[in-house]
Design goal:
The protein is mainly α and 181 residues long. The chain has helices at residues 2-12, 16-38, 41-58, 70-90, 97-102, 109-129, 133-144, 149-156, 160-180. The chain contains nine helices and no strands. The longest helix has 23 residues, at 16-38.
Length: 181
């Protein structure tokens, strides 16, 4: 957290290199978090870029809070961007993957594997959508962003025990949901 504090302070004084270091440090975590939420790699990349653009524009307003990592601020921006994206997307008609598979003939194995992987991801996304909002958040932060429980607890404003309990109940629920489908 000390390193982040120095980088943020430098970025607040328009040090481009400092912000670039923050970008490099957190890009993959934020990208994976967004990817889990929306399930589309290209859109996740675009949204991740938007997150960092918003962070750059607002870095001067960032205030340190004891025990709360800088990444919590980035995840809050990412969460808001995902919510905005999903609202916009819900207004657009989409073509279900099943229609694509049914109308495609003579697939080569790599395309078939890609479609299967996409289908598995969609099944997982549907299952994750059935979790409670807190369970979804824990899954996203722990498994896509690969954050330790202590960081997830600070980001969510919960105790480590509460995060562990949420994680456990989320995994159990996902097992049950995936076995039903």
């Amino acid at each position: 957290m000390q390193d982040d504090q120095g980088l943020v302070t430098r970025a607040q004084y328009y040090d481009e290199e400092a912000f670039a270091q923050l970008y490099e440090k957190y890009f993959d975590q934020i990208y994976r978090y967004i990817l889990l939420k929306i399930g589309d790699a290209h859109e996740a990349e675009d949204i991740t870029q938007q997150v960092f653009l918003k962070a750059l524009k607002a870095i001067n307003t960032y205030k340190w809070k004891d025990g709360v990592p800088f990444s919590a601020w980035l995840y809050r921006i990412a969460h808001n961007q995902v919510v905005d994206h999903l609202r916009r997307k819900s207004r657009r008609p989409t073509c279900p993957l099943d229609d694509v598979v049914l109308h495609t003939t003579e697939l080569d194995s790599s395309i078939h594997d890609d479609i299967e992987a996409r289908y598995d991801l969609e099944r997982l996304m549907v299952a994750i959508d059935k979790l409670t909002p807190l369970q979804r958040e824990v899954v996203a932060l722990r498994f896509t962003s690969e954050l330790p429980i202590a960081d997830v607890a600070r980001i969510m404003g919960k105790s480590e025990g509460a995060v562990k309990a949420l994680q456990h109940s989320a995994i159990q629920a996902l097992r049950r949901i995936m076995n039903e489908g």
